[in-house]
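Example 425.
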Amino acid sequence: MVKFVNNPIQGKIAYAQMTMYHPVLRENDRVRAQYYNALYLGCNVLIRLSQYGKAVLNYYSAVMKSGTAGISRDKLNVKLRVVMLFDVIHISGYRLKSVSPKLVKYFNFPDGLKEVLVRLTLRLTPNNPAWNELLKLDFIKSESDWINMFRENLGFSLRHPYTILITSTMSAGKSTFVNALVGSTIAKTRNLACTGRPHFIYSKPFDDGLISKWDRTVKLDAGGKILDNREETKTRISYESAYFSNGLSGKRCMILDTPGVNSSEYQAHGSCTRSALTSCAYDAVIFLVNYENSGTDDESAHLQFVWESINENVPIIFAVNKVDSFKSGDQPLNEKLTDIRQYLEGCGFKDPTVFFLSSQAAYLYRTRKALIDENDISDLEYLTKKFSRVIKLKKVNGECKNCADDFEHLCGIGYIEDYINDKYS
Ligand SMILES: Nc1nc2c(ncn2[C@@H]2O[C@H](COP(=O)(O)OP(=O)(O)OP(=O)(O)O)[C@@H](O)[C@H]2O)c(=O)[nH]1
Ligand SMILES: [Mg+2]
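Predicted structure in complex with guanosine-5'-triphosphate:
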């Protein structure tokens, strides 16, 4: 049985890496190597290096191009020692209870600075007034971007991720929907049983350009490898993280992409999704109804299971996906909505929240700058026209508070993000 807990160790991959503006990257090779070596030593002395910490150090080593230069921290200027203190905290995964007092002492700071840093590390929160004192110092002021990245990660570390479980029958478009929410290709999609185990996908507080992954080991830069996985040969759960560049950006959340429940070939897919649902370890559920193929026995059996499994105070959204397949002669969408609502009420869901959407259109739109396949480019062009001229989702999804006629709302995903943002606390 898979244990569906929000694992704090793997959850650390949600912290964005701060290397892009790292102050040491403006130094020469010798200083960078010195810095890396001193950091490596400091981490080994000051904290218990977790798998995550080792992965960050490895990543730093590649970015900082560590060499064989001397290792003494005293050779580094005070600014780099302050930076290193924050790096150690970052590498520890923002958990410093046991080391705070000796941490500041270790770096031999001058007296005034030492006091500020002790106050900061004793109550390590993004709002501690000692940040202002630190950032007032001339030699630190220039690093305020980098320090603010640290504070954003710190703020994230203190918040519980709002967990959204996505479920449906096979191939309704869950993984495409997840890619659309994130705004990049993080989950594998295809028109056959595809997702074979639960994927926990954490949001990052800011964009570090990396897709990270835990799958027995931590890979901070797993981008290209994510989609190569043969699902059945790896661990039973995969943890990934990326910056969500759209409606959920900056939110601390975790999307749980589950396998479709009705594969006759892979029955384990259904049982692991059902155990995720009965775990109740989530804050909201999104049930994708397949517009092309709804009302099947498999779907109503799964709806029944969901109705029995989830707590009544957990919000559930029904997202009718693939509405881009609508063609003239089809039942008008407002009638379809009435039928779907009745069907859901028949399964026990009182006054269900239903939105129509096209995950495929949202995904293509949000990744448009990176599209290279000609078919994708022409599909997007076609879908853009279809959603502004033919399929008027406003009529079924309703007017919305904040939307002009942006494509996110025209293709439906914007409504779902607005709803999540309303519930998010
Ligand atoms: N037309 C259309 N096709 C879509 C849409 N969303 C997904 N698809 C297609 O549907 C197929 C299945 O998509 P996936 O995202 O892999 O579906 P899934 O629910 O994750 O599948 P499993 O993990 O196997 O249960 C793929 O070929 C997608 O391209 C959509 O909004 N419109
Ligand atoms: Mg999938």
